[in-house]
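Box S1 | Example of a co-folding query
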Amino acid sequence: MPSPAPGIAIWQCDLELSENQIAMLAQCLSAAERQRATRFGMPLLRARYVIGRARLRWVLGRALSIEPQAVMIETGRRGRPFVRGHEVDFNVSHTQAIALIGIVNHGRIGVDIESGNRRVNVEGVGRRFMTLRERGELATLADDDRRRALLRLWTCKEALSKATGDALSAPFRHLEVAVAPAPRLVAGPPPYVPADWQLFDVALNGDYLATVAWWRTETPDPGCRRDQKRPASRGVSGEYTTFFITPSASFRGGLLF
Ligand SMILES: CC(C)(COP(=O)(O)OP(=O)(O)OC[C@H]1O[C@@H](n2cnc3c(N)ncnc32)[C@H](O)[C@@H]1OP(=O)(O)O)[C@@H](O)C(=O)NCCC(=O)NCCS
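Box S1 (continued) | Returned holo structure for coenzyme A
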């Protein structure tokens, strides 16, 4: 499958494996990640976390030409994860038993995936997160089209907010997004300046809506000092890889909807 653009690599991962496979994958996790895994009450969620982290380490290790267990994943402002000391940036999103991983050579990336059948409080989310123009357009649509259009807008805005690390504190109601013919940021307060951003729809197997946001910023990653020299990485080649996909039981509780 094609990459959204040169310099971006996307990986779709299935988060279901056998106990033995999960135990093997767990070996490449850091002590802190293993500790975090033990804090998941439900075995299903613990397994998905271990598989997702191991896949992420494998993908990053490949991009950086280092072993998966040697990848130093840290968290910056508001918990945004990044790789210390490298130009490569990544972001992850999960829904149900699927994870989407995006990596870029430079700048920052945000990704978001939502299940197409997700139930949404359309009015409430619209009021809280959409611009007047977006709400006006949503109002012209029939019920289910409106729900899906809102989800599509939401994946764009959440991907933007995850690239900056703002997450839920992003100025969503001031981020004007157009979804057709292709998604784009139309207007927003700094750093959401349209000229610095590209949005991409990601077509996945199954009923999912997913967006990649690429922020072409020169700002270093959170936690990386400006004077810090970063080692060169092998980088990403603009590939798109599917590990395997089997949608199953619900993964997230629904933070917003
Ligand atoms: C970013 C966020 C909105 C995503 O929530 P979501 O839609 O339920 O989940 P997604 O599956 O799309 O994304 C989760 C992943 O985003 C990444 N992530 C976490 N915080 C992030 C941030 N601030 N920016 C970008 N990515 C972030 C993580 O990789 C996380 O996966 P992991 O927990 O397995 O490591 C949520 O994690 C969040 O609210 N984080 C911010 C918390 C915050 O503001 N804390 C303030 C402390 S001062």
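Confidence is low (pLDDT under 50) at residues 222-234, 237-257. The chain has one domain: 8-242.
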